[in-house]
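FIELD: query
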Amino acid sequence: MSNDSDKSKTTAPKAPTLYLIAGFKLLKGLIVLLLAAGIFALSGHNLGDVFDNVLRWVHLDPEKRFFAAIGDQLDTYTPANLKVFASGTLIYGLFLFGSGLGLALRAAWAIWLAIGESAFFIPIEIFEIVRQHPATSEIAPNRIMAHPKIGLTLVLIVNVIIVWYLFRNRNRLFRHHH
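FIELD: result
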């Protein structure tokens, strides 16, 4: 016959926020892995031509100054550069996916990966928020999120909350077995 106190010792505490963070990491990892696959697939093509074709497909003029500048920049990437970038993207995607899976399974190592990954970007995000950017006349002032610092500030807030929550609750959520 089972005792209720024995049952409570083996049951992990409820942690909906942990599973939300794990799901976020898994989703982000999946998106980054798909991005890596796309970059690998495009590495044998001229990116400028692909970009022009996509713009024409959605009925936009690739000769407009804004799009032409992007196309010119894309023409500078070589297949070797793209493969290196895709490899780094693949490694980061696997890292995120592994971290999310580890959090979902409550592996003790995963909390430190998640804290480290989220905390790593905080100083970079702060630097980008306080850094002065030259004004661009191409961005319409009435567009939603026209100011990139708003989005970056939101990402910073989410990362700080993730680091704070995981660090504060690490012992409760990830008990070490002796």
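FIELD: remark
The first helix runs from residue 4 to 10.
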